[in-house]
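Notebook entry, structure prediction.
Reason for the run: the old model in the group folder had no record of what sequence produced it. Starting over properly, with the input documented here first.
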Amino acid sequence: MRSQQLIARLQLKPAQSLALSFLGVILLGTVLLKLPFASAAGKTTSLIDALFTATSATCVTGLVVVDTPTHFSTFGQVVILLLIQAGGLGIMTLSTSLALIFGRRMGLRNKLAMQDVLDQVDVEGIKKLILYILKMTLIIELIGAFLLFLRWSGSLGELRAAYLAVFHSVSAFCNAGFSLFSDSFVNYRYDLMLNLIITFLVILGGIGFTVVADIQHTWLRRGKGSKATSLTVHTKLVLIVSALLLLGGTLAVFFGEYHNSLQGLPWGKRLLSSYFQSVTARTAGFNTLEIGRLTNVSLFMIVVLMFIGASPGSTGGGIKTSTLGVLFLFVRAMFRGQEKIELFNRTAPQDIVRKSICVILLAATLVSLLMIPLLLIEKASFIRLLFEAVSAFGTVGLSTGITSQLSLTGKLIIALLIFAGRIGPLTVAFAVGRRKRPPGVSYPEARVMVG
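New structure, fully documented this time:
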């Protein structure tokens, strides 16, 4: 409560509050992971490695500089799990939901802040949405943990299976990519049940809380025979773009690795491996193929998927699927000579178009600028450094194996990309930018040649 009062006195903008909330949890996680008993016997964790791991876990990324299952003790692994859960839900969402559970009331300032964070129009529905997000997260993670427990209990023992099931269910739904297997899921690349469970959790966590809520409510209304059974425009756009990216990613990996990592395998196993990597490439960070052995074609296509990322209001990063969808519709409208963007018999507001273009430009600029010092400092190839940088920005967690080999400066740059990618490039701009100014003098229009 004191922290909320302090933030209120500082009169921070919602973007600044969001950034500071993540930063505070990262610093707390760094301290906990630096404790001697957070590391396994005979292991020590340096300050930069603790900071990097805490940043990666809180920002649900999954890039690691030390091997999670062998370097950290059970305590350290639980700390990582809690950071993943807090970061996946969103620090402000989690703290607000816990306050509501314990009977605290939301003030108008908090409602407006959460309205901005969750990108909602209706202020009064914020409380209901926050509690729904918490309930939905727990239910989906419990279902995922139960299914994974059934898969592992016979071969790993019940206690070990339960621990692994909870950890990987939370990590998958939060799109974190952290695994307690040193090779992620490479040893399970042909396990149909595990592949489907993990990708199911990843997809649900990546399409966004509001989309899942809309699908559920629409399905329930149809069950009751209600006439208002149509999904929202946002949900339709997210589902269509996500499906196209999933299909395109599967085909890209399938053909890119046809004569490489997938050579000699039956068609079913090729498709399963390609499908899994397509799902997790957008933001989850798990892998069943050895990323360091992929062709440059596959690496580049995965870079594109990682840059796009998940959907708004989800546990993932990237520029978001709806941003890509709006940009595509904007380009289509220009080719057709239309002034307005039409989608599903609706018109997209101009501020949404401007915001989408701004997000993409800011994201590309941020990655490009931070790639320069990486190329100057690190010895890895361009494609591997680009892969690492975009994986960090998209909070994905896939790596060609160079993360632990980065210099101190390289790790700090990647950690900065992780942080900026999780809170979003537009949020970063709003956090450091000036407050809104009233419109001043209106100047005459001027023609500028472009294209």
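Summary: The chain has one domain: 2-432.
The old model has been moved to the deprecated folder.
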